[in-house]
Design goal:
Number of strands: 11
CATH superfamily of the largest domain: Response regulator
CATH topology of the largest domain: Rossmann fold
Number of domains: 2
Number of helices: 8
Structural class: alpha/beta
Helix content: 40-55%
Largest sheet: 5 strands, parallel
Radius of gyration: 18 Å
Amino acid sequence: MAKILIVDDHVELTESLVDLLKRDHHTVESALSGRDALELILNSHFDLAILDWGLPEISGVDLCRRLRAKDPSTAILILTGKSEVTDKVVGFDAGADDYLTKPFYLMELKVRVNALLRRRGKNVQTLLRARDLELEPERFVVRKAGREIKLLPKEFALLEFFMQHPRQVFSLDNLLDRVWASHSQASTAAVHACIRRLRQKIDDGSPESFIENVHGVGYRFEP
């Protein structure tokens, strides 16, 4: 699971990309203009951004520069109809990690997305394990000691994020920013409630929780 931003003024293409990446259980947000995208970029963290070059108001290349300056860890893929080498150089100089020329096949974009997430340290794995807990991202399955556990989509996304970042401490605000969509009405109280439900399901009465409370700081996943 990753938090992905898609910015393209072509409505049908944007909707297709959102649907494609949501099927892989990513948290996906979109914008149709550079100005709307800039607001999202300045107020949230994204693991990956897919930016169209020819955006109204603020170009994709300018957005790329702004995003790279704000968050060097975000992977950036630029979409464009420009195919000249000199144009690609401009994109890479702005901070892009990859470049995809329109038109393209959706599956090609999916492959590029997975490759960028791997290179940026986001685990695109078929199985995550911690003690007797197993999570299969592609099948949306969680098992505890071999027994399947039913999780709500946000519980699943939160658990996957924790398992991808073992022993790292995250505040409620960090988790809200990394797992929930920017436009959602969720609050830190909703994150706390989700953690409480998740603990009940995966700890199964054990006194040693997978999700530990770090007093005054936040939470960490202890594998």
